[in-house]
User: What shape does this take?
Amino acid sequence: MASPAGSRLLTRPATWNSTSAFLETSGVVSASGMIHPTAVIHPRAQLDATVTVGPGTVIDADVTVGPRCVIGPHVHLTGHTILGADNRLHAGCVLGDAPQDLKYTDAPSRLRIGDRNVFREHVTVHRSNRLDEDTVLGSDNFLMAHCHVGHNCVLGHRVVLANGATLGGHVTVQDRAFISGNCLVHQFVRVGTLALMQGGSAISKDLPPFTVARGDNAICGLNTVGLRRAGIAEGERLELRRLYRFLFLENRNLREAVAAAQGQFAGELSRLLLEFVATTRRGICVHPKPRPRD
Assistant: This one.
């Protein structure tokens, strides 16, 4: 994700052509890159020669932008921020600003972003609050309008954050998780691989892989649609269903259920789910017990 060899510093705005390939509707990026005359780019900022920058954008000194990135209008890139290749930033994004942490004392902390991510309008991603830990986003993620990623978060690959989703500090989101609109994730929480949060859900406990969050700290089954789309075989899906029932629906003590399940469920995905539950520090979102009838 560092600046590629042979890239050159762009310190003067290039001529802006309104018919250039920057237009969002074209889906094509100019091979030579273009910088709008109203963009403000610090001389020390490192931009690959193929980067396109829209009007009114501000890029500060310690920012590195990789090949073929398309940066829309009125974006602010600041802090020690590194973007890989082929990222697309829509209007009003702010990436790399200081963490919202009262203990933060202007340390030159970092934000690292991989390749082919999409940041829609007014997305905010904050750099970390300490030097020994970065805020990290992987590749192929889709962050929809007005969502927020707090300091020291770590996102894997192919994660989707829908409109208005908010991640507190130190949150970990594993690969292919889907966090729906206006969801809230408390600081230090983990969201497992291929987990899904229904719209408006809020969690302060870890969300196990492959499960669906509903309401507050509750799950309501497996993300069967996500599992099929990910190409998970029917046999593996069936074993996950059996494991879900064993852990969450049969009124067992969860710690004891995990220990017992480790000798009964040998599939790779089952082992991943069991390891996630066994290593929780904040507790696990669980399936609510049915209410007794009158």
Observations:
- The domain at 24-173 is CATH 2.160.10.10 (UDP N-Acetylglucosamine Acyltransferase; domain 1).
- The chain is about 15% helix and 25% strand.
- The mean pLDDT is 90.
- Helices lie at 224-229, 234-249, 254-261, 268-278.
